[in-house]
Amino acid sequence: MNALLTPTAPRTVPERLGWMLADAWVITRTSLVHWVRNPLLIVYSLLWPIMMVLMLGYVFGSAMTVAGGGDYREFLMPGMFGQTMLFGVAATLTAVSVETAKGVTDRFRSMPMSQSGVVLGRCLCDMINSVLELALLVGCALVVGWTWNNGPAEALAAFGLLLLLRFALIWVGIYIGLMVTPEAAGVAWMPLYLLGMLANTFVSPTQMPAWLGTIAEWNPLSATVAACRELFGNPGLGGDSWAAQHSLLMAVAWPALIVLVFLPLSVRRYRRLSH
């Protein structure tokens, strides 16, 4: 009869880091396999942004004006990029809550796995999905006539800011997903739509009532979208507030603050889950 061997827990910092990264990759690969085996999920997550681009760009675009002048589709696309990164929170939240309800999370916690690695693996999986979504959306944008007017370095910086926002919001999704049921996660779209609309995604805050424009200018999504428009060289006036005038700074500061708050909260919440 063979005896079961329990792996020795790593003691040094390099060993713990290697253990965490190895377990994170296991979780990432498992989540990606699950994602690939759900074709309807792939179709929805990848085609929904394209449908939004076609509807807003061609159906409503002819009736929209850009503050300061310019083509509306060039104004729209950075907003669509940012909104897609925002809506990814719902996918993260739902996946985490379903795994928790089905006992998958408890199974991971009962195994000799790095607890930080499990949470990091969820983040890596969602980042890979986000890169694919953003690449497909950029391809669609180029087809409908959008382009960046500055150099490739500025464009890469803008894409980096979009993925930075998505990285930060993943930790929000993980933390909330560990707290709510799958049924409650299903209504996550409602506040996300509100947050996405109260921003500079579709219209400039200068075209809103003063009090609403102020809220939109301080929205973290607005900071990323305004910074991307600036880097892409696309039209759009941000506003007169301090946040609007320093969009590049805020596009880094907001995600950094979100990560500093929700990353440790996510790891702490995972460690304290009841069996």
From TrEMBL:
GO terms for molecular function: ABC-type transporter activity. One of its GO terms (cellular component) is ATP-binding cassette (ABC) transporter complex. Keywords: Antibiotic resistance, Cell membrane, Membrane, Transmembrane, Transmembrane helix, Transport. Pfam families: ABC2_membrane. It is found in: Cell membrane; Membrane. The chain crosses the membrane at residues 39-60, 80-98, 119-144, 156-178, 185-203, 248-267. Its main location: membrane. InterPro entries: ABC2_TM, ABC2_TM_bact-type, ABC_2_transport, Nod_factor_ABC_transporter. Residues 40-273 form the ABC transmembrane type-2 domain. PROSITE patterns: ABC_TM2. It is a multi-pass membrane protein. GO terms for biological process: response to antibiotic. PANTHER family: NODULATION PROTEIN J. Belongs to the ABC-2 integral membrane protein family. This is Transport permease protein. The lineage of its organism: Bacteria, Bacillati, Actinomycetota, Actinomycetes, Streptosporangiales.
